[in-house]
Amino acid sequence: MKYNNLLLLFTLAFSANGFAQSGEPYIHDPSTIVECDGKYYTFGTGEGGLISEDGYHWYSGAVRPGRGAAPDAMKIGDRYLVIYGATGGGLMGGHNGRILTMWNKTLDPNSPDFKYTEPIEVANSDGLEDCDAIDPSLLLDPKTGRLWVTYGTYWGNIRQIEIDPKTGKRVEGNVEKDIAIDCEATDMIYRDGWYYLLGTHGTCCDGVNSTYNIVVGRSKSVNGPFIDNVGRDMIAGGGKMVIAGGDRVVGPGHFGREIIDEGVEVMSCHYEADFDQGGRSVLAIRPLLWQNGWPKAGNRFHGGTFEIESERRGYALELATDFVRIPQERHFWGTPDTSAVKPIASQQLKDVINTWPKGEIAVRCNDYMFRPNQRWTITAEPNKGGYLGQPYYKIIIEGTNRALAATASKELTTVAEYTGDDAQLWRIEQLIDGTYRIMPKMIPGEKAINTKICLYSAGDSTPTLATYDFNSDNSKWNLRQQ
């Protein structure tokens, strides 16, 4: 977190457009999102943080003593470790700082077990050396069980130290190592034999003029060197772009990763400014994709009208209605044709809707032919709850109120009128390969919210509901904007 103007500190407010989470996500420098007893928590600069019941609607209420800046959090065993920087980063003109850790049995401030331990210093900077002790993050190495911390800002090098995952103290004899420059708010993650170092590049805390973006390098060793996609070492300023500004939001920074399911991942960060909301800073959650071994932010899903295309065969989801031919003047090959070119109008809903049954209509998959029974309008229903990063959606045939719905027998149907029933609400998540998982919120007759059953291609033309399997194209769909 680099402060380039002290008058621009901490504009924390809610952005209500499609890029921010719903509720009151007032935060800056958010930690990695952590789940505790069915709720989600993230901590930010200052003394507080956010809590969410469902991962989409966020409100203040998380508690972290010590104030300071840019914390991180992690569950280790049955306890939660929180790490944060006290001063540093150019705050009030100084570059001296300390990195501190503390433990808690729970993150729920209303629990009788809620009590932080006394903070332990694990690193510091004296204001003269080429490093600021601020912006720490945690990696528990899944291969070795060792716990690593990276910290630092633009004012010097990014450093790496090792701490004890049982005590939160610095490992005795551990010597810090410089691993990157020209970034801050770093985070390390592990995937498929690679260690990734993600750093926030650019300037922060300047509203719509902030240039924050997130870059990455990787290494086969947890200690680096971290090399980007064109061979540049991050200690020399390298880094491949993961996410930058766009769609009238700027300044993504402070990366965090959350694995929801196999092939389903999201990244958290903040946007320094949303143009449509007065340049306010908000929590953001985006799909996390992996392309050729590199992480990349996916697109925030906004809804619209789509062809819903099966990855299995490439057929489109459609109402199982009779095929209605489009009238046309035929033109044949082999003879001169000097008649004027007359475009053919697309088939309209009014041309076919009276041929459709009035009650429930089944669905199938078929060649995409630009027909009304293949055009699905997907719209967010933010008052119906959500999941990590997004609200539930309704899926209806364009121009109608006919809605896609799950049945008690785990099949698909469409009902004549959308009512907002949980079986008519859908969870839509972009997978790490760019395709989508589409899941009903509830299966009729079952008590728990569905997290396993998805829209599934049982055959080339036979959609159904079945258990999600990332390794099968039967579980994957493409959404083609129309």
Q: What is the topological layout?
A:
Blueprint: E1 22-23, E2 34-36, E3 39-43, E4 48-52, E5 57-63, E6 69-76, E7 79-87, E8 96-104, E9 120-126, E10 137-140, E11 147-151, E12 158-163, E13 177-180, E14 184-191, E15 194-201, E16 213-219, E17 240-243, E18 249-261, E19 264-274, E20 280-291, E21 294-297, E22 304-310, E23 316-319, H1 349-352, E24 363-366, E25 376-380, E26 386-387, E27 390-391, E28 393-397, E29 403-406, E30 412-415, E31 425-430, E32 436-440, E33 453-459, E34 462-467, E35 477-481
How would you describe what is shown here?
With 482 residues, this protein is an all-beta fold. 1% of the residues lie in helices and 43% in strands. Mean pLDDT is 92; it is low at 2-19. It contains one helix and 35 strands. The two termini are 41 Å apart. The strands form ten sheets. Strands 32-31-28-25-22-35 form a six-stranded antiparallel beta sheet, with no helix packed on it. It has a five-stranded mixed beta sheet with strand order 1-5-4-3-2, with no helix packed on it. The protein has a four-stranded antiparallel beta sheet with strand order 6-7-8-9, with no helix packed on it.
Mean pLDDT: 92
- Helical fraction equals under 10%
Q: Gyration radius, to the nearest Å?
A: 26 Å
Q: Taking strands numbered 1, 2, ... along the chain, how are they ordered across the largest sheet? A: 32-31-28-25-22-35
Poorly predicted segments:
2-19
What is the count of DSSP helices, taking H or I runs of 4+ residues? 1
Strand content: 35-45%
Biggest sheet: strands, sense, closure? Answer: 6 strands, antiparallel
Coarse morphology: elongated
Number of strands: 35
Which class of secondary structure composition applies to the elements?
mainly beta
Q: N-to-C terminal Cα separation, in Å?
A: 41 Å
